[in-house]
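Incident log, structure service

09:12 report received: a user says their structure output differs between two submissions of the same chain.
09:20 pulled the input from the user's history:
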Amino acid sequence: MTFVLPGAGPVETTALVLAQQPGNGDNGGQGEDFGKSSPVGFLLLLIFLVAVAFLVRSMTKHLKRVPASFDKEEPAEEEKPEAEAKQPEKTESS
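09:34 re-ran on a clean worker, output below:
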């Protein structure tokens, strides 16, 4: 079963005409060298790769300095009362 809309003929014809490639030699700016890279582009790519390598090396050095945990150390608080207990108390002997 096909469903045909009235007046679909001109719409279909218009779509086929608009979808065709231009035949007058104009390829839309895509000349003979379109899509080919130049030595300057290759050099730029190599420079970017070297820069990324240095950035990775630098980030690795910085990440090695980051502590494993940022939690506050609780043993330091437990040592304070022991340190106070070890100090002799002052007594007045007058």
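09:41 both user submissions now match this output. Likely a transient worker issue. Closing.
09:42 reviewer note: The mean pLDDT is 75. The longest helix spans residues 39-64.
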